[in-house]
Design goal:
The protein is built from 2 helices and 2 strands. The protein has a two-stranded antiparallel ribbon. It has helices at about 5-10, 40-50; strands at about 15, 25. It has about 70 residues and is α+β, with helices and mostly antiparallel strands. It has a domain at about 15-55: Erythroid Transcription Factor GATA-1, Chain A (2-Layer Sandwich). One of its GO terms (biological process) is regulation of DNA-templated transcription. This is DNA gyrase inhibitor YacG. Its cofactor is Zn(2+).
């Protein structure tokens, strides 16, 4: 069942920057793509995650045996 929102509910919602494009995004149940401004920005972000664009840096040496060698 769809929920209807009054204009006061939408007016009370806060605007946040879209994580993908930086534009204004309505953070409320009235925006099904929240915190993104649109379905397009939501899919762009999902694609970035799928392509491993969001990764933590690797602190391990490239060659595990390289740090054990002494001169």
């Amino acid at each position: 069942m769809a929920q209807t929102l009054s204009t006061s509910d939408v007016a009370a919602a806060r605007q946040v920057p879209c994580p993908a494009c930086g534009g204004p995004s309505l953070y409320s149940p009235a925006n099904p793509s929240r915190p993104f401004c649109s379905e397009r920005c939501r899919k762009i972000d999902l694609g970035a995650w799928a392509n491993d664009e969001f990764r933590m840096p690797d602190n391990e040496p490239a060659d595990p045996g390289a740090s054990d060698q002494t001169s």
